[in-house]
């Protein structure tokens, strides 16, 4: 079953068809300066359009102070600040991942911007009380920062190392755009753009079978851009495997709820049961954004700020790792490891469907052998704490981020993220 390919890097080199399947992501990581110019402008248009939806729904732009949220004005300012910090103000930008993160920088365009937007130094809980510029002033800042970024791009050699920070800033903005979309979901803000809507999935497509073999995660010598946690190598022995060809839909998940799965201790891990008991005091025993239809049979979900019938053909989402594990125990299944997920995605791209929801795996987020932190030190290293890896992408993810080697990572209790799962036979 294609095991002779052996690693993600080999598959990406060997399979032109596979590379075409995630062409936007390959272009973001390996494209030239003109590709980045276009992508940076497109990303900024989406950032501002989604911010406009927040302004329409929240004229005062105030949101509750919760761990899963940021003030929209802070998010917007941070995106531009990050771009300016790593590109416009960074005299070592041409060194790419070899740059010293502590290189003295030029002053920001806005006085005291570091004290407002430096996410590593501004505690989350203080962001609601910061003296942030107005929306109009923040937009003006972003316009100037983008112009500076594009000017710097014209002055750089068309080489991977020199383009590193432009690619990082692009993907960073794309990540924040997705976060803005799922924060909007939690706040009940309608997003009309058809690109960011879920799609119905067909009936389960059965399983893909793989023989036992060895799979190499990571890239010792990546081509183009790679996040630091993708660099290095981990050779993994994977067992014979039967893995779902697509993610679990509501049609497969909700029978677990109907049969009392949220009340049955035997399906839950110790951590999962503790999470469920703490949650039961304030929320119904069902997935987030889902409730029994009032006065009717069946279920309904919260979307665009209103309750609508739950479509059984949509991917189950806004699930914690605990809920994914509990469903698997109920169904006599298990979650895949990230090596199993990646092997299936890269060697069977014509049959392995992904991209509707981020997918929980059974693997902890940890560095590969040879890991070295890149200049953005807080991106990976602080989070090697046992939290699980998620693979894939969601319907809210920019196509540029949809790369089969990308490793997402959230705490097991997070259900604001559009995450779901697929399962494997035991």
List the helices and strands and how they pair.
Elements: H1 8-14, H2 16-21, H3 23-30, H4 33-57, H5 72-88, H6 113-117, H7 135-154, H8 160-187, E1 207-210, E2 213-217, E3 234-238, E4 241-244, H9 250-258, H10 270-280, E5 290-292, E6 299-303, E7 306-309, H11 321-331, E8 333-334, H12 338-347, E9 358-364, E10 388-392, E11 408-409, E12 419-420, E13 424-425
Parallel strand pairs: 9-12
Antiparallel strand pairs: 1-4, 2-3, 5-6, 6-7, 8-13, 9-10, 10-11
Helix pairs in contact: 4-7, 4-8, 5-7, 5-8, 10-11
Structure write-up:
- The chain has 426 residues and is an alpha+beta fold.
- It folds into 2 domains: 23-195; 207-425, paralog of FGE (formylglycine-generating enzyme).
- Helix content is 37%, strand content 12%.
- The chain has 12 helices and 13 strands.
- The protein has helices spanning 8-14, 16-21, 23-30, 33-57, 72-88, 113-117, 135-154, 160-187, 250-258, 270-280, 321-331, 338-347; strands spanning 207-210, 213-217, 234-238, 241-244, 290-292, 299-303, 306-309, 333-334, 358-364, 388-392, 408-409, 419-420, 424-425.
- It has a 4-stranded mixed β-sheet with strand order 11-10-9-12, with helices on one face. Strands 5-6-7 form a 3-stranded antiparallel β-sheet, with no helix packed on it. The chain has a two-stranded antiparallel ribbon with strand order 1-4.
- α4 runs parallel beside α8.
- The radius of gyration is 22 Å and the shape is globular.
- The two termini are 19 Å apart.
Strand content: 5-15%
The percentage helix is 25-40%
Identify the CATH architecture of the largest domain: Alpha-Beta Complex
CATH class of the largest domain: Alpha Beta
Distinct helical segment count: 12
**Number of E strands:** 13
Write down the CATH topology of the largest domain: paralog of FGE (formylglycine-generating enzyme)
């Amino acid at each position: 079953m294609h095991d002779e390919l052996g690693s993600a890097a080999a598959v990406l080199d060997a399979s032109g068809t596979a590379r075409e399947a995630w062409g936007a992501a390959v272009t973001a990581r390996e494209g030239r300066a003109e590709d980045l110019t276009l992508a940076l402008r497109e990303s900024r248009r989406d950032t501002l359009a989604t911010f406009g939806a927040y302004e329409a729904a929240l004229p005062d732009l105030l949101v509750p102070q919760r761990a899963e949220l940021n003030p929209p004005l802070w998010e917007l300012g941070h995106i531009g600040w990050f771009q300016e910090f790593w590109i416009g103000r960074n005299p070592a930008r041409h060194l790419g991942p070899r740059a010293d993160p502590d290189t003295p920088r030029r002053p920001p365009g806005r006085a005291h911007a570091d004290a407002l937007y430096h996410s590593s130094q501004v505690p989350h809980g203080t962001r609601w009380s910061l003296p942030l510029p107005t929306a109009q002033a923040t937009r003006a800042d972003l316009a100037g920062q983008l112009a500076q970024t594009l000017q710097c791009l014209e002055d750089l050699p068309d080489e991977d190392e020199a383009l590193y920070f432009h690619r990082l800033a692009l993907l960073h903005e794309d990540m924040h755009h997705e976060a803005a979309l799922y924060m909007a979901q939690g706040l009940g803000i309608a997003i009309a753009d058809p690109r960011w809507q879920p799609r119905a999935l067909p009936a389960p497509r059965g399983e893909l079978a793989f023989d036992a073999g060895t799979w190499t995660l990571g890239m010792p010598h990546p081509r183009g851009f790679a996040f630091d946690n993708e660099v290095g190598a981990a050779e993994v022995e994977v067992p014979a495997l039967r893995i779902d060809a697509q993610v679990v839909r509501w049609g497969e998940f909700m029978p677990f709820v109907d049969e009392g799965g949220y009340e049955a201790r035997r399906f839950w891990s110790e951590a999962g049961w503790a999470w469920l008991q703490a949650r039961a005091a304030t929320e119904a025993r069902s997935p987030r954004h889902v409730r029994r239809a009032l006065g009717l049979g069946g279920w309904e979900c919260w979307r665009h700020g209103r309750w609508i019938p739950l479509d059984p053909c949509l991917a189950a989402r806004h699930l914690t790792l605990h809920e994914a594990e509990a469903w698997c125990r109920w169904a006599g299944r298990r979650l895949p490891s990230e090596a199993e997920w990646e092997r299936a995605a890269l060697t069977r791209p014509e049959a392995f469907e992904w991209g509707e929801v981020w997918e929980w795996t059974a693997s902890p987020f940890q560095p590969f052998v040879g890991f070295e932190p890149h200049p953005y030190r807080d991106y990976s290293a602080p989070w090697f704490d046992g939290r699980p890896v998620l693979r894939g992408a969601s319907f809210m993810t920019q196509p540029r981020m949809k790369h089969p080697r990308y490793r997402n990572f959230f705490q097991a209790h997070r259900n604001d993220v559009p995450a779901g799962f697929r399962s494997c036979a035991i």
